[in-house]
Amino acid sequence: MIPAAFEYVRAGSADEAIAAIAEHGEDAKFLAGGMSLLPLMKLRLATPTVLVDVARVRDLSYITDAGDHIAIGALTRHRDVETSTLLAQECGVVASVAAQVGDNQVRHRGTIGGSVAHGDAASDLPAALVALDATFVLRSGSGERTIGASDFFTGFLETALNADELLTEIRVPKAGASGFNFQKFNRRAQDWAIVGAVVATVDGAKRVGLVNMGNTPLRATAVEAALASGASIADAALSAADGCEPPTDLNASVEYREHLARVLVRRALEASA
Amino acid sequence: MKISISVNGGAQEHDVEPRTLLVQYLREDCGLTGTKVGCDTSSCGACTVLFEGESVKSCTMLAAQADGGSVTTIEGLAAADGTLHPVQQAFHDKHGLQCGYCTAGMVMAAVGFLDENPTPSERDVREGLEGNLCRCTGYHNIVEAVLAAAETGAVSGGSK
Ligand SMILES: Cc1cc2nc3c(=O)[nH]c(=O)nc-3n(C[C@H](O)[C@H](O)[C@H](O)COP(=O)(O)OP(=O)(O)OC[C@H]3O[C@@H](n4cnc5c(N)ncnc54)[C@H](O)[C@@H]3O)c2cc1C
Ligand code: FES
Ligand code: FES
Fold it and tell me: Does the ipTM exceed 0.90?
């Protein structure tokens, strides 16, 4: 399977990438690790006429301590997120979730920014970033803006990113080296989660994110509220699927996904206690 | 577009269409047919090669993305005198293949993996190779082979 023909532009810097996208307009797309975009192009489900390759924008590949948060460059590969000692200490949940994305080959190419920009509710990192209330930095020719993770994911494969905007940075709170857990339920190695539950502890409070329980990555606010008002883990986890409209597909029915959410949230809370 | 890639240590220069996949480039432009296409949908790992010493699925990478970099394929592992790479030798010794279709990808994934984790447990090997499927389901001997190769202590990623 070969993608439809396109023009290829390699950007050496964020500014070059933004200028190239602006020049080529609507049908141009950024190419980061290509782990989501190239499979879609091979199936001709995506047919961009211009690809602006940003994978070599090395100044957007970093993980740094920015005082009150950790800043992760959008072009940082899953492998580098997974093995970062800074993240392991300061926001271990992000490193441990990145380690569960796909397989080694996928993690060697795929980037955290690509996972976010793709906006797939079945992806692992977006749910963790929603749970952490991460902030995303978006840049275009007309300037830079920041947006919270829960405002960013707007629908099925839809985000608040404009076509001419480059995601440049992901900011996560210093949630520490412990108090987190990720339960990813799938049937085959390397697969996406049928359902996933991610728990982190921020400022002493539990945060709960859900993978593949709706059109967007979700936060299980009912569980968080129940815990905050003193409910036991077992009781709080019972509300894990409240308000969710999970998809139904070959892998699981709605009811089964709701059941998985309750069980996985309980397990993740127990493991992160 | 013109691309130049170091393939198995030798400079290769070709004029390719931007949409050329790395696997297609290796097989058709470089004539290196050791790298196989299994699923063509990023799942099976049969097309695994090393890019800058790290395992990648060459059916899900453009040749253009490898421009200026180095690629190692199965053809680049054995020494010039034909001595097998320790991972190849271990697959031979442990009977780590049946029909052989997944083997080039398995071996390349294993070489890349052992470079990152030279002293793996059995579980590490199974997780490290989760991106590679064997339709003959001969996983047991494949894992044995990778563990045996690790024991030799002589494994490093070809192009690093
Ligand atoms: C076999 C396989 C298994 C996988 N398993 C999992 C899994 O278990 N869990 C999981 O979460 N994911 C999984 N993935 C997807 C993987 O996480 C991808 O790496 C990720 O979704 C996309 O990142 P990328 O850098 O490859 O982006 P690309 O594919 O290059 O881009 C994806 C989209 O984002 C846009 N984009 C990329 N970067 C930016 C940016 N900086 N600014 C603006 N737009 C941008 C692109 O234009 C494109 O539309 C898997 C992929 C494969 C091939
Ligand atoms: S052919 Fe590339 S992963 Fe199957
Ligand atoms: S040996 Fe036949 S596919 Fe693996």
Answer: yes
